[in-house]
Amino acid sequence: xxxxxxxxxxxxxxxxxxxxxxxxxxxxxxxxxxxxxxxxxxxxxxxxxxxxxxxxxxxxxxxxxxxxxxxxxxxxxxxxxxxxxxxxxxxxxxxxxxxxxxxxxxxxxxxxxxxxxxxxxxxxxxxxxxxxxxxxxxxxxxxxxxxxxxxxxxxxxxxxxxxxxxxxxxxxxxxxxxxxxxxxxxxxxxxxxxxxxxxxxxxxxxxxxxxxxxxxxxxxxxxxxxxxxxxxxxxxxxxxxxxxxxxxxxxxxxxxxxxxxxxxxxxxxxxxxxxxxxxxxxxxxxxxxxxxxxxxxxxxxxxxxxxxxxxxxxxxxxxxxxxxxxxxxxxxxxxxxxxxxxxxxxxxxxxxxxxxxxxxxxxxxxxxxxxxxxxxxxxxxxxxxxxxxxxxxxxxxxxxxxxxxxxxxxxxxxxxxxxxxxxxxxxxx
Length: 429
What we know:
single chain, 429 residues, alpha+beta, Alpha-Beta Plaits, 4-stranded mixed beta sheet, 3-stranded antiparallel beta sheet, 10 helices, 21 strands
């Protein structure tokens, strides 16, 4: 099996196909701290792409409540269990070298879904990817266990760790998900028909419906379960990243062919989403570009982390982890970079704070940002995750976003402006 480099694992890994990369890569950052579980993104996608017969169970975008929720049910717990059985007690990270650019989260020494299946010998023959097919019952409820929390049992002494009244310490968070358009897609690796491919211009993963025979190998292989079978056509379908919008085909949003964000991104009222396109070097790595907001958040500051990077697909969906969730749970989901990410988010410096304002300020994709420094407006004492205190200085900087053609498409200040409307009626406030 060919060897490819996975920067999220900090090492080379085995993959069924040789290195081959697009010129740019579709990627996104979700700030989980802001998600309010309104499901607006879910319905925006549903009403655009999956409203037909046979697509009733298809939710290319969904928001699930962790730790118990999931669609299909138990998708992550089941695969984590399969990996642990394949490589008992060795699915671990070595975070000692986490400061290097080539291994920002350290090194994952366990087995990926491509490596854990190599010695498999079953009645159906060899497999390329470790995975499973969800049962019909697991596809039934997209919002199972919605807003169900977990917490530590009361120890009789510490009320702060109690799940009983009068005081309790419980937690849950909302996880918005769609296809990660992985660098090394498991669906592509598993397809016997070679019906799945990555677009060379933007890395979007698509299924050629004329070649798909509905074997569901992609459904079985995708660790995030974002390839879904449609019984009415006998083929599998998945998120297409609203590629006509990426191509600038919307005459209203992109009058001059400017790449625009997807439907789920633009519909988000919680402003948790930022989408972009990052340039890829000849060696397959992200080209250094700290003025690209996606690159800045993911590679420069490492505040946004990949979801389950240990699976080995090198997903291009990244998350700013929630501050209130127990660290071991988050580290299992996002890797050992969680503590560094949360520390930055708890007390961002002026540059990071300015870039965080770009979320959901325009429907066009921001390729470059620029910051104009403003006056100091506040000092706030912040309690850090370790209990220490730090003073955050806030400056009313202005961050400007530019589209693919260098045109300014958004301008916003760190301090939210206040507008006083003129009184027009006797009962106006």
